[in-house]
Amino acid sequence: MEPLHQAPLDDGRRPPHPFWYTLLIVPFGASNGFVTVALAFLATKHGLTVEQGATLVAASMFPNVWKFFWAPVGDKTLTRKRWYLVSTGLVAATLFALSVIPLGPSTLGVLWAVILLSSVAATFVGFSVESIVAHTTPPSHRGSVSGWFQAGNLGGSGIGGGIGLWLLNNTPSPWTAGGIMAALMCACALALRFVPEVPAERSAGGVLHAVKHVSVDLWQVMKSRNGILCAVLCFVPVGTGAAGAVLAQAEVAALWGAGENEVALVQGFLTGGVSMAGCLAGGFLCSKVVNPRVGYAIFGALMAVVTAAMAFSPMTVAMFVTYNIAYAFVTGLCYAAFSAFVLDAIGAGHAATKYNGFASLANAPIWYTGLVLATAETRGGAKGLLLTESLMGVGGIALFFVAVVVVGRTRRP
């Protein structure tokens, strides 16, 4: 992969190596991974149903569907580094709290509240890093930088999920597990010294005025041909990776004979590395080989193939591990393609808000697909879960290509 530091910015500065973005975005991924893997696995072991476990995951995803509405706060107030420090501290505190709160039906409401707070805090981690990326990345490197960025996101999910689950099951007390997780999150802030500061966006009026101004700006992007196609591709249930959170639940994993060690391995440590490799491969392909939008559709189709193949394969521990690894790699491909096509569409100005306008759309299918798949597993078993994911992916790709034809006839680029 071509090193980013060899491509100067327009003002002559050298952009930072994208590895630092990988580290900085880890708390964003870890906030989600701790819920979708660690808590999701333990849910059915502590008296929750598969569908109740899915509501924990849905609570983690819910703020990401609506984060566009408070993204202007991240653009308009403080600097990006200050927002990063505040939000990462909150993520660390909430992961500590989620470690020590007893998991069970009686604490479900409290868990929802803390998960929501953790997820909102994580959105500001994302705002900070996304804005620095958008302001410091030359157009020729958006594909490769997207790969590094999403490698940290999915790698962080593996850290939060795999390490979080291992710590909860192997440390002397939940307080120890929570303390270690909080320390890991805070350590990521050390990477701030290697990236430039990005000041708050300057515009007349306060935050509400900024919301109006940036909404108009985002609308100008979305109503273009590229913007419409990006919005459609964000909203359809393609490349969501949502099946991973359902497969991580103890009751579901047990259908393949997998226990907590296998889940911690394939939904945490191992798939964290594999998904990072997928992100880097996807970034390279979108930078050198294929248009990011087309790549996203291709990778989404590949994900549908993986889940369909898993549905018709023997339900053994070996197959559980193999297909989870394949699923993680393809998820990495999809996430890298997503960041690449959004960065192509938005430009640098009001980056956090415009990026998250598309990201909100993209998180909607992750949120609703996870709930649909949990219901499909309850009613149709593991095969119903996997085939539902495949059919949703194929249907989403079909809708996208219909949109390509329609928009191509009615809109200019």
Topology at a glance:
Elements lengths: L18 H6 L1 H18 L6 H17 L4 H6 L3 H21 L7 H29 L5 H29 L3 H14 L19 H16 L2 H11 L7 H5 L2 H4 L6 H29 L3 H20 L5 H30 L4 H60 L3
Strand content: under 5%
CATH fold group:
Growth Hormone, Chain: A
Please state the CA-atom Rg, rounded to the nearest Å. 20 Å
Low-pLDDT stretches are 1-11
Intertermini distance = 30 Å
Largest sheet: none
General description of the model:
It is a single chain. The protein has 413 residues and is mainly α. The chain has one domain: MFS general substrate transporter like domains (Growth Hormone, Chain: A, Up-down Bundle). It is built from 16 helices and no strands. The longest helix is centred in the last third of the chain and has 60 residues.
Concise summary:
With 413 residues, this protein is mostly helical. Helices cover 76% and strands 0% of the residues. It is globular.
Give descriptors for this structure:
413 residues; mainly alpha; 0% strand; disordered N terminus
